[in-house]
Amino acid sequence: MARGRDATGVLQMPWIAWRDILVRFYRAVLKDNVMLIAAGVAFFGLLALFPAITALLAIGGLIADPLTLSREIQSLTSALPSSAADIISTQVNDVASAQSDDLGFTAIVSILLALFSASRGVNNVIIGLNTCYNEEEKRGLIHLQLVVIALTLGLLVIAVLTLAILAALPVALAIFDPAPWLRDGLLLIRWPILYALGVVSFMGLYRFGPSRSPAKWRWLAPGALVACLLWVIATLGFSVYARNFGNYNETFGALGGVIVLLMWLWITAVILLFGAELDGEIEAQTARDSTSGPAKPMGERGAVKADELGEATT
After folding, report:
1. Is residue 104 in a domain?
2. Global confidence as pTM
């Protein structure tokens, strides 16, 4: 079918189908008030950020030197505007300077605190994802909280893997001392690996966050790939803007760093929801069943975007 109504994957979509998808995507972003929802996600994300950092260092400190981990976290935050990076660096240094024999107890307490705090942020992410996919929350309170905890733990695990890659690779290179070309190649390839971990994080949120029958992984990849790439570009761009053109410190005084950090979290939330909107409109373009499990007819798939065809634009 000309508009990709019979497509079983995104690569089978013709150009006219992508025009339909992008037009509906633009309209959906406006209709769903994505910018406003992202503001709520960013606010609760800010509340969850510092307990999450504490938990991350506490867990990582059980298997590696906390000071080494703190340096890797600070290297990652170097892409942020300096005022926002300073806030995170201060928290990281405070935790990393704790006595190593306290880290086990700290890990338990901070993980519980992080899960409690992050549940607010993840709940708002789920609300936003439900809006993007035109779904109402149908899960019970206990089921929903289990999903929230599972997603939070999954994100923490990916964060630990990220730090492990950043911290362990230089140590391994120092021990084995490979040829210069191999050393440079290994140092370079870690960035695509970290990008892939980011894509996996986005796909996990898109698959398990909304209250619907989960989409097949192949229908989640486009939005995750685009969103993760946009996030990298937007983070670097916002950093350049805040350092060279922004006047947050002059306008907000001592709160300047907090405002910059909140703005970055808002940009992150907007892009996350953009990816969900894009995936939803791609699903709506095909009449084939995009949900996991055996194929079902339209109207019985348990997902609005899979049960209704998207409007064709002229």
Report:
1. yes
2. 0.85
